[in-house]
Every structure is written in structure tokens, then in C-alpha cells.
Design a protein that fits this description.
elongated
């Protein structure tokens, strides 16, 4: 017997999950809100060995590591040690791409996949179930989003007066 697999769930297939929608609420989807200010503690030790033999590369990957650990996403990473090696690999690849004169498309594509995996893109944030709180106002007060809810008329109320709804498909 030969098993052939096709289709299946893929990231970014279908509509983007809206954490504020009624459907998400019914499905129990709650996004974790990450602080806009980012991770305020010191970054963990970089996990990859210094075996590249290129000092500029090591300096750049360590700088990217420190910058990454200052993001809001790092507030989630700190409790997920299993992600740290992937984050370190992202930093190394990012440094390689930045320092290359002409990085190949494969490297750039892999860098984008890493960014998605660790939540550094809008799609990656959604895939991880994260959202970043709004930036505070310039005076330091919390940003407040005012959303006016408008109730849409039901489809039944929009029918012309001479149309009658029949249960059972009208048969």
C-alpha cells in the first residue's frame, strides 16, 4: 500500500485570525498580549559556538541577538527555552545575509521563515498567538483604541417585503 498525502494545514492558508472576532471568541482563541516596551532583562547567553572564523560575523550575530532579546516577542521566548537555538540560528543567518554582497535567494527565504517561526513578522505573531500592545501616547498615557460597534441589519430584515423565508429549503 502506498500512502499519498496531499493538502493539509499550512501556515498562512486561509484568513488571518482576528483575535477580536466573534468566531475567535467562540473557538476560544485568545492572543497573548506582549508589552510594547519589549523584554527589559538581559539576554541569555548566545547558544551557537564561535566557529565561523570571521570576527565581523560573530560581532554582528551577537548584536542581532541582543536586539532580538529587546523585542516584545522576547517576553514570550524567555519562557520557551526550546526556541532559543532557533533564535540564535536566525541571528547567525541574519548576520550572514547582511554581510554578504549578494546573498542567495535561498538564504533570504530561510531568513524570512525564521522570522515567521519566532514571531518577528505580522504573520508570525498571528501564528504564535501573540499581539503587541499599542504604543503609549506621546505624553505617556496608555493608548486607547475607540471602536464604535455598528450593528449590521440581519439578512432577514434586508429582504424585500414580498419575500417570505421558508424553512426546509422551500420544498
Amino acid at each position: 500500500m502506498i500512502l499519498v498525502v496531499s493538502g493539509g494545514v499550512r501556515n498562512r492558508s486561509g484568513a488571518i485570525i482576528d483575535p477580536n472576532s466573534g468566531r475567535s471568541e467562540r473557538r476560544g482563541i485568545n492572543f497573548r498580549t506582549l508589552p510594547h516596551a519589549g523584554f527589559q532583562a538581559e539576554a541569555p547567553q548566545f547558544l551557537l559556538p564561535d566557529d565561523t572564523g570571521v570576527p565581523e560575523l560573530r560581532d554582528r550575530e551577537l548584536t542581532i541577538w541582543r536586539e532580538a532579546w529587546g523585542t516584545p516577542q522576547a517576553c514570550a521566548w524567555i519562557g520557551e527555552k526550546w526556541r532559543w537555538r532557533v533564535i540564535a540560528q536566525y541571528c547567525r543567518l541574519s548576520a550572514i545575509v547582511e554581510l554578504s554582497i549578494e546573498p542567495g535567494p535561498g538564504l533570504v527565504a530561510q531568513l524570512h521563515r525564521f522570522r515567521d517561526q519566532i514571531g518577528l513578522t505580522p504573520a508570525g505573531l498571528s501564528e504564535n498567538g501573540w499581539q503587541i500592545e499599542p504604543a503609549p501616547n506621546s505624553d505617556g498615557t496608555p493608548a486607547v483604541q475607540v471602536i464604535e460597534e455598528t450593528k449590521r441589519p440581519s439578512s432577514r430584515s434586508r429582504l424585500p417585503s414580498n419575500v417570505k423565508v421558508v424553512k426546509g429549503g422551500g420544498r
